[in-house]
Automatic annotation (TrEMBL):
Molecular function in Gene Ontology: DNA binding; DNA-binding transcription factor activity
Name listed for the protein in its UniProt record: DNA-binding transcriptional MerR regulator
Lineage: Bacteria, Bacillati, Actinomycetota, Actinomycetes, Propionibacteriales
Keyword RNA-binding found: no
PANTHER family assigned: HTH-TYPE TRANSCRIPTIONAL REGULATOR ADHR, REDOX-CYCLING DRUG-SENSING TRANSCRIPTIONAL ACTIVATOR SOXR
Gene3D superfamilies found in the cross-reference section: 1.10.1660.10
Domain HTH merR-type stretches: 1-70
Species this chain originates from: Kribbella shirazensis
Highest taxon above the source species: Bacteria
Keyword annotations from UniProtKB, A to Z: DNA-binding
Keyword DNA-binding: yes
Amino acid sequence: MQINELAERSGIPVATIKYYVREGLLPGGNRTGYNRVAYDESHLHRLRLVRTLVEVGRLPIATAKEVVAAVHDPSPSVHSSLGVTQRAVAEGSVADVLEVADALGHADLAELLTAYHKAAEQLAALEIQWLAKASGNLDQLAERAVVGTVLGDALLAATRREAQRNASRAAFGPDPQD
């Protein structure tokens, strides 16, 4: 497919695709003529992965490039790919969060830590089971580690906000706008 079709099918503008190629997030296509380059389904798939990292995960381009490189590097383990992704999306440690809460006068947030740990351990076990479903294909495992981390964070945050709205409604009554 030509770059215009790749843009149409991916929903990503041609200029952005060219930028991703220049930045090394997307491999160049195969030259088919002086001014013609052909792309295939692997380019479309990679574009979707990059879009997930940049738009959903809100990773800077340089960080997304590191994550994509980890996914497509045949030498590291799945655990290593997961680690690269987690470091890329990390926004602070538990200690950092509790320190900020304390500085804001909310040290009692730490009282929720045991419940957070239990819920996180249950969720992590389920996520690792989901990850292991691709155990026959190292590339797919590494990509699942990335996608599961980035989209999992977004899914968890969205689900948590939804649950908070429901709990708030139950505790404090409905909002006049509900």
